[in-house]
Amino acid sequence: MKSRTPGVVCTAALLAVVVTGCSGSQDDKAGGGAPAGTARAALDTLAVKAPASKAGYDREGKFGRAWSDKTDAPGSGNRCDTRNDILARDLVGARNDGSSACVIASGTLDDPYTGRKIRFKRGTGTSSAVQIDHVVALGQAWVSGAQKIGQRKREALANDPLNLIAADGPANGQKSDQDASRWLPKNTAFQCAYVARQIAVKKKYGLTVNPGEKDAMARVLKTCPNEKLPADGAAGVALKPVGK
């Protein structure tokens, strides 16, 4: 009678291969093969749809008064307007003029969009050198699902530190409400972080991407496959007066 031991051994070996092949590491791939927790994985969770009509878009009517210190949680604002919160967060050496704990009068921006240093000075004709950009422009948000999320969430989106960044005024104007398929920062070193933040905002507010936009984002993230998805904007919720 022939021994069946070899067959048992082969079966066990085959089973081991199958089990090994099915098990994953803690870095289990998500989102079409991208590591979990990365912007690339999050991108693959976003719905892909053609842009909706921009009909009905109205900045103040649909997204609230600019820089109104709205947040997701009622009462969690710091009584400083959102523009000054972001200037305080993003400017190096941010200072006020002593008239208000909130109003930022000067500082230096290491501009993420151009890579230049910009000296900011509050005043007529000078304040516009540094603008606060909506990373996902509000017009772009409108055509990618914000029409359906309700007024309160739209106002939160418009004032969410995750979606706001101090940037070179002319670059912000050039961007307008274009998506990533039509505009990316000239500073290529910032493109990964920029796209990752757009994805984080769209994921947080249930917005969509259009096919060209998703392709452009994927091309950028191919150069930085482990770019993490940012969790928040780290704004100074308890902004204190800054010294001269």
Automatic annotation (TrEMBL):
PANTHER family linked to this entry: AMP-DEPENDENT SYNTHETASE_LIGASE DOMAIN-CONTAINING PROTEIN-RELATED (PTHR24094:SF15), SECRETED PROTEIN (PTHR24094)
InterPro entries linked to this entry: GmrSD_C (IPR011089)
UniProt signal peptide: none
Pfam families (alphabetical): GmrSD_C (PF07510)
Origin superkingdom: Bacteria
Biological source species: Streptomyces caatingaensis
Record protein name field: GmrSD restriction endonucleases C-terminal domain-containing protein
Record domain GmrSD restriction endonucleases C-terminal: where: 81-220
